[in-house]
Amino acid sequence: MGEALTQSARAGVRIVQYRNKTASMKKAYAEALPLRKLAAELGALFIVNDRCDLAMAVDADGVHLGQGDLPLDLARKVMGPDKLIGISTHNSDQVREASAGKPDYLGFGPIFKPGSKQDHDPVVGIEGLRAIRTLTSLPVFAIGGITVENVGEVMKAGANGVAVISAILKAPDIKQAVSDFLARMPAPAS
Description:
It is built from nine helices and seven strands; from the N terminus they run H-E-H-E-H-E-H-E-H-E-H-E-H-E-H-H. The protein is an alpha/beta fold. The chain has two domains: 1-65; 90-185, TIM Barrel, CATH 3.20.20.70. A seven-stranded parallel β-sheet has the order 1-2-3-4-5-6-7. Helix 1 packs parallel to helix 2 and helix 1 (2-11) runs parallel beside helix 9. The mean pLDDT is 94.
C-alpha cells in the first residue's frame, strides 16, 4: 500500500483514505500509522474511514463517516475543530441532513456500479449527482464506479472531486492512471 500511496501522491493525488473494514484495531493501527507518516511526507492529506479512534491514534487529518458510523456532532467532539470530517451520502434526504450538520465535505454515490464493493447502495447516476448539487454548498466528492472514461462527465455534473479505488489500484501503472484522471478533470461546475 505504501508504494501505491507514493505513486499516487507523486502523480498529483492530494487526499488519501485508509479503509479497512475488517481489520482489528491493532492491525489497522499497524497498517495506518506508516501510511499516515508517508502521506505527510508526500504532502497528501490522510483520512481514516469510519473510525474516529483510529484517526486520532494516528493523528490523521480527518475521518470519513458512513451513514452507520458515529453521528457528526459526536465525531466533531472526538476529532476537535481542526480535523476534517466527511460524510457519505446516497440520496437527497441524506445530503440535506448531512449538510445541516456542517461537515467539511460530502461523499455522494454510488454514481455508477462500484468495482470494489458488492453490497452498495442504489446507483444514483449522473442525474442524481446533478440533482443534489443544488442542495448543498459543501464540496462533494463523487464515488462509485468512477473511471478515466467518465470522470469528465462526473465533474461537469457538479462534483468537486472524485473518490477512486479500483480504477487506480488495479491499473498496471498507478502513476499513469492518476495522471490520466487529473488530465480529464475540468474545474467543477459552479
